């Protein structure tokens, strides 16, 4: 489909009703499920929350094998922030696995839907982004996604191609395809309505527009997080209205962050950014719990299920779980940096664990000597506030040139020294009068 794809013609109400009745399932022809198809199905199902409808998707795979025509697999992301973290890559990993099987993956940037604001999983209206914010964020999205996907085999699209063409008349006709009652089946809408939390009318448009994307792209499979299930199902229903074979949907679980409790999020500061320095990325992976480690293997690793099972069994038999954690940390660092960076990150981590000082630390100049250590920590940005600095000193988490600082009243004299907070924050300070 070329750039500036014409918007699909909207069906009449009569045609829509007929199409819904006649296109609710795959064609009657049944294809045998070969060993290759069974293997592809197993790859698709690894780590997923739901695959709907599995029997339909198996037939799509079998038909693709028989015809040689790859499936069209869609993932839409709104550029609501300029950077991606490992939580975002869970679904990108699945896209890459399907891409490796020979299918056509479509990376859809929701530059139009971003102006509406996705209400999924929210208890308040999401502020729509401006066109300038969207364009700025979109510039880095595909570049970062290409660290996971094969960019040469990825179709990149923007949904403004067809959504802009709808106009007011088309939008009204599209809105007639869904009732308010059906929209209120969404869990987040239902909860907000029950609690008296405002729901803006434009928010009802979001799942419709996302579903319309599937019509425009003739999607065979759409991927998303578990919080996207309603929107993905809308796409399936709209395709029936347009006389298309309905897409299957695959939802991936939301990856927990470093705390092992909440989903990975920058706002919760429990994330691992895919553009972070290799040493930082490695150390963050090493900080997750031994239990959470297997979750990361399941959702982030490209190792086979048999390899992961063998690693897990080895740990159960007494092997050091640290070795397995090192392996997943190195795999992740290598993916986003290089093999050498992964080796160097391991060496840096070992050095730090022995109390050593990493090579790549910031050089910061500070004036005002003699300067209280709490104030120094705040000025250098190693602590957000003097109260946080005081807490870190009380906990024994502050060192100067490797020596633990316990005196909160200590004043640092003019000199050059290494200031350390916790296990991962270092800076070489040059303090002058």
UniProtKB/TrEMBL annotation:
Binding site for ATP: 266
Low complexity bias: start-end ranges: 12-21
Entry keyword set: Aminoacyl-tRNA synthetase, ATP-binding, Cytoplasm, Ligase, Nucleotide-binding, Protein biosynthesis, RNA-binding
GO biological process: tyrosyl-tRNA aminoacylation
Residue interval(s) of motif 'KMSKS' region: 263-267
Subcellular location: Cytoplasm
An annotated GO cellular component: cytosol
Catalysed reactions, semicolon-separated: tRNA(Tyr) + L-tyrosine + ATP = L-tyrosyl-tRNA(Tyr) + AMP + diphosphate + H(+)
Domain of life per record: Bacteria
Chain span(s) of sequence motif 'HIGH' region: 79-88
Residue ranges of the region described as Disordered: 1-21
Enzyme class (EC, first level): ligase
Gene3D superfamilies reported in the protein's UniProt record: HUPs (3.40.50.620), RNA-binding S4 domain (3.10.290.10), Tyrosyl-Transfer RNA Synthetase (1.10.240.10)
An MF annotation (GO) of this entry: RNA binding
Domain RNA-binding S4 residue range list: 371-430
Annotated EC: 6.1.1.1
InterPro entries named in the record: aa-tRNA-synth_I_CS (IPR001412), aa-tRNA-synth_Ic (IPR002305), Rossmann-like_a/b/a_fold (IPR014729), S4_RNA-bd (IPR002942), S4_RNA-bd_sf (IPR036986), Tyr-tRNA-ligase (IPR002307), Tyr-tRNA-ligase_bac-type (IPR024088), Tyr-tRNA-ligase_bac_2 (IPR024108)
Self-association and partners: Homodimer.
Family annotation (NCBIfam families): tyrS (TIGR00234)
Protein family membership: Belongs to the class-I aminoacyl-tRNA synthetase family. TyrS type 2 subfamily.
Function comment: Catalyzes the attachment of tyrosine to tRNA(Tyr) in a two-step reaction: tyrosine is first activated by ATP to form Tyr-AMP and then transferred to the acceptor end of tRNA(Tyr).
Protein name: Tyrosine--tRNA ligase
């Amino acid at each position: 489909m070329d750039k500036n794809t014409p918007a699909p013609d909207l069906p009449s109400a009569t045609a829509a009703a007929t199409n819904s009745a006649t296109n609710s399932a795959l064609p009657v022809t049944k294809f045998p499920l070969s060993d290759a198809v069974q293997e592809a199905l197993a790859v698709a199902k690894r780590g997923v929350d739901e695959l709907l409808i599995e029997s339909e998707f198996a037939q799509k795979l079998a038909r693709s094998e028989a015809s040689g025509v790859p499936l069209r697999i869609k993932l839409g992301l709104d550029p609501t922030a300029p950077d991606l973290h490992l939580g975002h890559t869970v679904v990108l990993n699945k896209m890459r696995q399907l891409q490796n099987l020979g299918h056509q993956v479509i990376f859809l940037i929701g530059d139009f839907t971003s102006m509406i604001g996705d209400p999924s999983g929210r208890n308040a209206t999401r502020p729509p982004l401006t066109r300038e914010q969207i364009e700025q964020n979109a510039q880095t999205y595909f570049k970062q996604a290409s660290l996971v996907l094969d960019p040469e085999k990825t179709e990149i699209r923007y949904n403004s191609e067809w959504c802009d063409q709808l106009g007011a008349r088309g939008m009204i006709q599209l809105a007639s395809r869904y009732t308010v009652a059906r929209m209120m089946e969404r869990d987040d809408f239902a909860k907000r309505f029950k609690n008296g939390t405002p729901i803006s009318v434009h928010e009802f448009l979001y799942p419709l527009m996302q579903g319309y994307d599937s019509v425009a792209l003739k999607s065979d499979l759409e991927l998303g997080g578990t919080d996207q299930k309603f929107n993905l199902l809308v796409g399936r229903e709209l395709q029936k209205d347009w006389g298309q074979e309905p897409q299957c949907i695959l939802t991936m679980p939301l990856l927990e962050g470093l705390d092992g409790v909440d989903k990975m999020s920058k706002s919760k500061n429990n994330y691992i950014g895919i553009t972070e320095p290799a040493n930082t990325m490695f150390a963050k992976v090493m900080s997750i719990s031994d239990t959470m480690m297997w979750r990361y293997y399941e959702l982030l690793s490209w190792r086979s299920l048999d390899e992961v099972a063998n690693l897990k069994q080895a740990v159960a038999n007494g092997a050091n779980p640290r070795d397995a954690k090192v392996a997943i940390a190195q795999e992740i660092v290598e993916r986003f940096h290089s093999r050498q960076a992964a080796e160097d990150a391991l060496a840096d981590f070992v050095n730090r664990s022995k109390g050593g000082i990493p090579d790549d630390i910031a050089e910061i100049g500070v004036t005002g000597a003699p300067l209280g250590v709490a104030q120094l920590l705040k000025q250098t940005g190693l602590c957000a506030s003097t109260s946080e600095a005081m807490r870190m000193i009380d906990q024994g988490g502050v060192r100067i040139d490797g020596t633990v600082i316990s005196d909160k009243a200590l004043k640092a004299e003019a000199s050059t020294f290494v200031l350390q907070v916790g296990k991962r924050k270092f800076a070489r300070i040059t303090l002058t009068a």
